[in-house]
Amino acid sequence: MKTYSAISAGLACVLAAGPVLAADSGDAAAGAQKNSMCKGCHHIPGYKSVFPEVYHVPKLQGQHAAYIVKALQDYKAGNRSHPSMRAIAAGLSDKDMADLAAYYGADAAKGASK
């Protein structure tokens, strides 16, 4: 029973670390070249979209890379419901997500090291 619990706990840690590992392997310079679909909404301070309803668009710069990867994975899988983000995420590879997360998360890493 202890062996099964240890294996289960280890597997849960590996699965939970997936987005973090993907974010760590991202290239911020490549992410800067891939963010054209993001800039139109996420780079405008206080921007609100009106589709499908009025929605405050979050700022991405400085967000933790692992969170960005997880959010994009969830949009792609259909676990998050915003139609525009689902459509954008559907066209992203795991590498694209990691690169974008590295680009946007660069400021978060700098802030955490202070």
User: How many independent structural domains?
Assistant: 1
Helix percent reads 55-70%
Under the CATH scheme, which architecture would be assigned?
Answer: Orthogonal Bundle
CATH top level class name:
Mainly Alpha
Which structural class should the secondary elements be placed in?
mainly alpha
CATH superfamily: Cytochrome c-like domain
The shape is: globular
- Please mark out the parts with pLDDT under 50 across 5 or more consecutive residues, or reply none: 2-23
**How many angstroms does the end-to-end distance come to?**
43 Å
Write the layout of secondary structure elements.
Blueprint: H1 2-24, H2 28-34, H3 36-42, E1 48-49, E2 55-56, H4 65-77, H5 83-90, H6 94-112
Antiparallel strand pairs: 1-2
Q: Summed up, what is this model?
A:
The protein is mostly helical and 114 residues long. Helices cover 68% and strands 4% of the residues.
Describe this structure in words.
The structure is a single chain. The protein has 114 residues and is mainly α. Helix 2 packs across helix 6, helix 4 (65-77) crosses helix 5 and helix 4 (65-77) packs antiparallel against helix 6. It has a two-stranded antiparallel ribbon with strand order 1-2. It is built from six helices and two strands; from the N terminus they run αααββααα. It is globular and about 35 Å long. It has a single domain, classed as Cytochrome c-like domain (Cytochrome Bc1 Complex, Chain D, domain 2). The longest helix is centred in the N-terminal third of the chain and has 23 residues, at 2-24.
